[in-house]
Amino acid sequence: MSLGLFRRRNRAGSMSSEDVVARRPPRDRVAGMWSDFLGVTATRAAQLLLALAILAVFVVAFQQVSLAVLPLLIALILACALWPLVRLLRKVMSPLLAAWTVFLGAISVLGGIGWGLVASVMNEWPELVDQAVQGFGEVQRLFEQYARNFPIQISQDQINDAVSSVTSFLTSSQFGAGAISGISAAGSFLTGTILLMVILFFCLKDGDKIWEFFLSWMPERHLEHWKASGHEARETFGGYIRGTATIAAVDALGIGIALAILGVPLALPLGVFVFVASFIPMVGATVAGILATLVALVANGWIIALVVLGVVILVNQLEGNFLQPIVMARALNLHALVILLALTMGTVLSGIVGAVLAVPLTAAAWAVIKVWTGRSHPELESVSSTSR
After folding, report:
1. Distance CA 56, CA 114 (A)
2. What are phi and psi of 329, to 5 degrees?
3. Which member of 2, 101, 111, 143 has the lowest number of beta carbons within 10 Å of its beta carbon?
């Protein structure tokens, strides 16, 4: 009896690994397929494809309802920036009066900036056009003088044909269709602006009540996470807008005063453009400085243009090495590569508005992620693990 048992055990021990796998139950064989290297890789690939599909659906949905989503996002960001002032005024007046005071003050400031920009451009536009014509003539003269030394010769007839093509396009039906689409875009802009002001007012008036209503639907075990996430997002949005406005004001004053001293036309609207463009990190201030340099080149010559370029570089260095680390240290705790990618994606999705909103939204999302992973509030991670 013992000898037969020994022989059976000996035969089982001499079986190959293929025989052992073949004798496994089907359920174990399927589980083994998904637990090896190829199985784990396939699982991760499927998860990645699913995440990309969800992201694509979200992007398409966002583009379809961007007329409502963009004003909502802008209003929320502005409300976060203005909320400390509303909370301060609520100590001496009713919530409704405090909301109206801050709302009308913000609208007056933004409207005053826009009106100053338009009025300045309208007053100095004829002079700038004349100087631009003279500058273009000078550039054309220099081009004709040195073009004969180029490897590729461009004749005057080719230049005239190019000018005629541009003129024909401007007077064609295609340009008229573009103008009609521009009118449609202006109507959408007006609708979005009105919706933005309405949402902003109600956020200033009832923002805390809306947030409390939202929290009332959250599970009790995650309530502290949601509260911390809302606090971090509000501080990030508010700090970003207030810090960017401070830096933009310094840039606009520095460049605008230099343009006025040097006698460059459109100094005031260029200063306002610098202020607005500075809300696009890394790119806006550079583009505004290039525009100011080009205007100085056309209107005042290349010596003044070089001086303006030096002022722009100096102001940008002051911003990047001194103001940015101090004012935006907490609100914009992102790597430059992340900011660049966010700007690119925001511009592709929604143009200039997307470029302005991409960075604060990315910063707020990163702040919320740190809350839920316990990197900014470690005590919440311990509470969450205990509740699980």
Report:
1. 36
2. -60, -45
3. 2
The residue among 188, 217, 246 that closes a domain is 217
Among 162, 185, 217, the domain-final residue is: 217
Residue 12 falls inside a structural domain? no
Measure the CA–CA gap between 138 and 140, rounded to whole angstroms. Answer: 5
Residue 226 CB coordination number (10 Å) = 18
Question: What is the phi/psi pair of residue 93, to 5°?
Answer: -150, 175
For 280, which DSSP code? S
Residue range of the domain that includes 182: 67-217
- Say whether 166 sits in a helix, a strand or coil: helix
Neighbours of 71 (CB within 10 A): 21
CB-facing half-sphere around the CA of 40: CA atoms within 13 A: 3
Q: Please give the residue that has the higher pLDDT: either 49 or 281.
A: 49
Question: Is the overall model pTM greater than 0.70, yes or no?
Answer: no
Residue 59 maps to a domain:
no
DSSP state of 323: I
